[in-house]
## 1
Amino acid sequence: MSVLQGLVAALSDGSVQVIDLTTPLSGDTPILNLPQPLANTVGLSLTPVSNFDDAGPAWAWNDVTVGEHAGTHLDAPVHWITGRDGKSVDEIEPSRLVGPIVVLDKSAEAAQDPDFLLEPEHFEEWQRDHGQLPENCWVIFRTGWSARGGNAAEFVNADENGPHTPGVSVACAKWMAGNDRISGFGVETVGVDAGQAATMDPMFPVHSFLLGADKYGLTSLRNVERLPVTGATLVVAPLPIVGGTGSPARVYALVEGA
């Protein structure tokens, strides 16, 4: 039996399961909102073209309007000024969009402190427990934040000082950008940076360092609590938008014995 035949058989008998990590995309899906005078993207809207009517008696279809960075989406390097000469979403090699998952679970810490930040020592602790990061891995930051996804206000968690959501310190963003085993970084929150990242130096360090280092971001993930710390495989499927700075994506994990 070939490797691919073995995978198909494992999917068929349930010994490998597909876990959907994607937030359903609708007009109610929370999106990032920047303060004035900065411009904002749009969420999803559907405009009917026909719906089993005179305009199309046997078919229904819609025109879709959606921002590149709405819902569960991929950030490509050209999204940020540090990566502006890098890859657009259509130029990312498919092999970079499939890789082993590394879960850093800080859900307990985030429950106590919504401004919790991931630090380099958290990666050092992980590697002491589980070994070196695998090649071409995707780091998934588990915070439990997706449990808030049904309520936009709780999900954004903003006050007069802006949103308060867990994220990554400047030092940790530099660490990840400098690690050649990491392909991307995924979060349960609306953006890959912390809610208070605008107050950091540089601002939005995950965007700045990772996208500038030809690494990729994933946001608004769900079902992260179903992932093992190691051993799962991520599959990221963005639209190959020519020149796109990002794309809504369907994101799956292949998990053995789930």
Note: The radius of gyration is 19 Å.
## 2
Amino acid sequence: MKKNSEYYTQKAREWLLERGVTIEDIGDLVFFLQEAYVDGLTKEQCIEHIEKVLQKREVQNAIMTGIQLDRLAEQGKLDDPIQGIIERDEGLYGVDEIIALSIVNVYGSIGFTNYGYIDKKKPGVLQKLNDKNQGCHTFLDDIVGAIAAAASSRLAHSVEETE
């Protein structure tokens, strides 16, 4: 059965929400990344760009794949050694960042800078997702940061240079 893009967009949004991430949470991250660069920036503008990012099939696939892997790790359903690696969110694993970079790459090289910065700072919902007592979010924290970075990049590309 072939599913349409709206179905995948809705599923990705539902799964984010089930894991405790709202579009408004991601909007806060976009605002954090762009407020110094966009005069009069509003949360509504940030959310508008997030919505466009979420319409991309590659983004939807990354969200659903990452969340599914986090769920399986929480349930202990992965084989060792990958079970432990994902549970511990080992620094040298890197596959979680690779999935995130597939999202970041959708809107150009500025996304890499945005992603690196937000991944290092871990503001807002990213700090909550990194709390090991809140479940396994090895993939989700990077995916949420990447969505924010991609939306920030899209926003930056939409603003006219004034200098």
Note: The domain at 5-157 is CATH 1.10.3760.10 (YutG-like).
## 3
Amino acid sequence: MHGDETDVPRKFSIWIRRSELRDAVQLMEIDALVWTSRTSPSPIKWASREQYLRNCPPGGQLVAVIGERVCGYLGFAAPTAMPCHRHVYEIHVAIHPAYRRLGIGSSLMAAMKELAAEEGIRKLSLRVLSTNPCAVAFYESCGFMMQGRLIAEYCIEGEYVDDILMWCPVIPPASDGK
């Protein structure tokens, strides 16, 4: 079911949890709807559920669920396998178009910051195309700051597009002893 705005209940509860094996098909659907030439240098097209699961294993995303519907996710992983890079999570966020502007992205980001702090992560980083100003504004509203800009990094459909690098510090949880 692709759904539209009329499928969203007037009153709803958003549940945030780690992704599970059973979420794969819905997450693949979100990827197909969200990652276009305006939001990604190379739109994501998964050949199979198995390919998806090899690249996006269960637990590697926080998912937002309304009822039984996965309506968005926030993927996270260390940027490299180097031990000196373990304090950073690189993230990406995707919300099903029918469920935008309901606070799902903000809920996912708050949950990610909490999880990252619990896991000893000190920095969240992401990349966003300059052709996606709504995403840039969203990330700024969540406390992200620009840390760099790769000018004309991509040529997408004949247009040179900047790659904006953003980051947000993760505040460690307060200790009882202060």
Note: Strands lie at 15-18, 61-66, 69-77, 88-95, 123-129, 145-156, 159-169.
